[in-house]
Amino acid sequence: MTVKKFLSIASLSLFVFLFSIQNVEISYSAFNPDPGAIAEKARLTYLNNVEKLYEECNLLEYNLSLDVFAKAFTGYNNLVKIGKLKQNELLTIIDFSKVSTQKRLYVINLKEKKVLFHSLVAHGKNSGENKAEYFSNLEGSFMSSLGFFVTAETYFGDHDYSLKLDGTESFFNSNARKRAIVIHSADYVSDTFIAKEGRLGRSHGCPALPNDINKPIIDLIAGGSCLFIYSQNLQYLNRSTLLNTDIAAQYSTIMAFQTLKF
Fold it and tell me: Residues 129, 199: contact at Cβ < 8 Å?
């Protein structure tokens, strides 16, 4: 095709288009939908997908509530969005709304949709007896901290093989490394201790694990995965920006759009 012929066809096509749009009534609202409606649709779609994932992971079987999982998954998504995580397949949840005699730590592979570990875990000595009720970000408080952490490097210390944690939320856990809040093993995290004392022993604020599974859990989650420590603490639930469902829903929608095949 010659350039002259191509330009002639292009000009004719433009003329037909311009003529046709003069005879078509275009609805303004069709091209300018309500942003609030779009956000609500994204939020509902996101929550439905979270519930589906919850069911696929069989988390009800492990006595983890949908509400706790939804909060954990929302914060996880928001950390992924800002590039905080290096391991995106794993999500570890500690549910301190449960008493210490219950298994309240969950390591979930989100890609394989299954629970890899379900374990006892201790809370800080000043957070409560059998149940953690008080939390702090202050050094020397001997309390557990709430919120989202990113797992860091392993080391051998006073409690043998341990895993350092970096808190991601100001006011709630940002002093984790300074306080030496780490995952480690302890003799007082066992069914034997429960049988004797009626509860687990307590740490200086660290989420301590049973001796026999401490290393495999640490080896699995170390190096940049998400850890969420939950409680029904209203101060945390009302102030944490990482629990913002709308932001997570928007990010989830964008990622889904980017994976579409055209």
Answer: yes
CA-to-CA dists, residue 60 to 63, 172, 198, 229, angstroms: 5, 28, 26, 18
Of residues 144, 134, 110, 131, the one with CA closest to residue 221: 110
- Amino acid at residue number 14: L
CA distance 119 to 217: 10
Strand partners, 91: 108, 226
Q: Please report the DSSP string for 188-212 in residue order.
A: TSSHHHHHHHSS---BSS---B-HH
Distance, CA of 69 to CA of 72 (rounded, Å): 5
User: Is the alpha carbon torsion for 66, 54, 241, 209 positive or negative?
Assistant: positive
Q: From the CB of residue 131, how many other CB atoms can be counted at a distance below 10 Å? A: 16
Could you list the mean pLDDT of each consecutive 10-residue stretch along the chain, which spans 262 residues? Answer: 44 42 44 71 92 98 98 97 96 98 98 98 98 98 98 95 98 97 98 98 98 98 98 97 92 63 38
